[in-house]
Design a protein that fits this description.
46% helix; binds zinc ion; 3 strands
């Protein structure tokens, strides 16, 4: 009987950890916002640019590659260094 309770507690702990991972690390809200950003190819097509990309808002050619929620996030977003608009997304 005590083994069953122990297994139940283990399952509960694992479920809690999975839920914490889902909401804190994956973050479905941030994921949706990230998915709404164009990919680099879509951004290129949308703004009609070839070669080195420039910001469609201010024309600045310098971008900053940042993680969505943390530095090491595989979901990257590229911001204009001048006007701080988010331009496109990528993943590593
Ligand atoms: Zn800009």
């Amino acid at each position: 009987m005590s083994t069953f309770i122990l297994l139940l507690e283990l399952a509960g702990t694992l479920a809690l950890m999975a839920a914490a991972y889902y909401y804190m690390v994956y973050n479905p809200g941030a994921q949706k916002a990230w998915e709404r950003l164009p990919t680099e190819a879509e951004y290129r097509a949308r703004t009609g640019q070839n070669g080195a990309l420039a910001c469609s808002h201010c024309g600045n050619a310098e971008t900053l590659d940042v993680g969505l929620l943390r530095v090491t996030d595989y979901r990257r977003q590229h911001l204009c260094t001048r006007c701080r608009n988010t331009l496109w997304r990528s993943r590593i």
